[in-house]
Every structure is written in C-alpha cells, then in structure tokens.
Amino acid sequence: GAVVSQHPSWVICKSGTSVKIECRSLDFQATTMFWYRQFPKQSLMLMATSNEGSKATYEQGVEKDKFLINHASLTLSTLTVTSAHPEDSSFYICSASGEAEAFFGQGTRLTVV
Amino acid sequence: AQSVSQHNHHVILSEAASLELGCNYSYGGTVNLFWYVQYPGQHLQLLLKYFSGDPLVKGIKGFEAEFIKSKFSFNLRKPSVQWSDTAEYFCAVSLGNTGGFKTIFGAGTRLFVKA
C-alpha cells in the first residue's frame, strides 16, 4: 500500500509554545488529507479535513485558531498546535487520500509539560 | 450524521476461544469498510478491508469479516484467538470518494486474551 509519513513521531514541548506536525504522502499525491486525534484509551476523532490549496474544514468543537492546518502541496499537510497546553497532549494521526482509499500515518505523540 | 457503532467495549476470552466483534454503521451511501488493530503503545495496523465483491473478507493473522449490507454490519471474526491478539480493535467506515475517503471510527473494542 501507499506510504504516509508523519514527523515527528513524538514531541515534548513546554506549555505556551507551538508545535508543527508534518504529514507527507511519499509515493502518491493526495488532494485531501485528514487529521485525527486520539486520547488515551479512546477512539480516533476526526479533527479536520485538509484540501490542497484551500482552507481546512474543521469538525464541530475543534478550534481552528488553535489547530492550524496548511496543505500547501499535494504531498504535504501540516498541523500546528498553537500555544499548546497540557490538555492538548494526545496522539495525532493523519491520513492521505489516494485513488481508492485513505492511508494512515504512524502518528505523533505530543506531550505538553 | 454518519456513525460507527461497536457493540462491545471490552471482551475477555481464553486462548483458543472464538471471537466475534460486532460493528454497525449508519450511512446510506457508498462505503468502504475496515478493521484496524492497535497493540498497546503502537500505531494503527490494517487488519482487513472491504470495498466490493465477496462480502466475506479475509485479513491478516487469521481474521475475517463479513459485510451484510441489509444489516449495515461488518462483524470481525477469528475462530481461535491467541494471547498475542490482546489489543484494541477499531471498526471504520470510509465514505465514498465524494468525501475524499473521510474515515469514521467506532469507539473501539478492547480485547484481552487470557493465556
């Protein structure tokens, strides 16, 4: 299957700082990418849909000013957690849409201290 | 709104027991169906998927799932579980290509297999 790479795999940051997470489709172009969040012992919750060259569409309850999404090219989408706080600590996962299905990255574990 | 419902949040089985995890979805359009497994501390792994054709799908590690369109169900089965199957299992529905293959996940079923 197609490969989706997330970077970094894990990150620890201080409260109040911003963190950028990258999601790349390595061997295919993805017009659409999705960002998910998984709290401990919970399921993956869709945060936003990212379309190349346009503004992201956020799910209800997700703060667009806090979770900035940029999809500048067909192979890269970035999620920036701005002014991170401990409650933002979570596992963030992206997926990229191929021709017939979406492929998932391996996730980024964010810990805010 | 689209949703995915997994019937059991926790399942405890002894080794060699048979497993069936229920999954129902609500969406009237074209869907692709998936089961993912997440071992403790690890990322998601795809167990199997259904797009079309034979509604009985075989996946990795001896798992299979059956799509019953009339019941909007996609139950996961394994004839004989092993201790190493202890993990969390997520049923997922990917909406058709008009939705960019947006994937909706069920709440997950945590399986514990006793040795």
Give a written overview of the molecule.
The complex is a heterodimer of chains A (113) and B (115). Chain A is 0% helix and 54% strand. Chain A contains no helices and eleven strands. Chain A has strands at residues 4-7, 10-13, 19-25, 32-38, 44-51, 57-58, 67-73, 76-81, 90-97, 102-104, 108-112. Chain A is globular and about 40 Å long. Chain A starts with a strand and ends with a strand. The mean pLDDT of chain A is 92. Chain B is an all-beta fold. Chain B is built from no helices and twelve strands. In chain B, strands 2, 5, 6, 10, 11 and 12 form a six-stranded mixed beta sheet that branches. In chain B, strands 3-9-8-7 form a four-stranded antiparallel beta sheet, with no helix packed on it. In chain B, strand 8 (64-68) and strand 9 form a beta hairpin. The relative contact order of chain B is 0.33. The A-B interface holds A 1, 31-32, 34, 36, 41-46, 49, 51, 93, 95, 97-98, 100-102, 104, 106-107 and B 32, 43-44, 46, 49, 51, 90, 94, 97, 100-108, 110.
Query: What is the makeup of the main sheet of chain A?
Result: 7 strands, mixed
Alpha-carbon distance between the termini of chain B?
Answer: 41 Å
Sketch the topology of chain A as an H/E string, one letter per element: EEEEEEEEEEE
- Briefly note the structural class of the backbone of chain B: mainly beta
What is the H-and-E element order of chain B?
EEEEEEEEEEEE
Outline of chain B, from the CA principal axes?
Answer: globular
Main sheet summary of chain B = 6 strands, mixed
Supply Rg of chain B. Answer: 14 Å
Number of strands of chain A: 11
| Number of H- or I-type helical stretches of chain A | 0
What would you report as the Rg of chain A, rounded to the nearest angstrom?
13 Å
N-to-C CA distance of chain A: 36 Å
Low-confidence stretches of chain A: none
Query: What is the largest interface, and how many residues per chain?
Result: A-B, 23 and 19 residues
From the structure provided, what is the oligomeric state, counting identical versus distinct chains? heterodimer
Q: Give start-end ranges of low-pLDDT stretches of chain B.
A: none
Instruction: Summarize the amount of helix of chain B as a percent range.
Output: under 10%
Strand coverage percent of chain A: over 45%
Proportion of residues in extended strands of chain B: over 45%
Please work out how many helical segments of chain B DSSP would assign: 0
DSSP E strands of chain B, number = 12
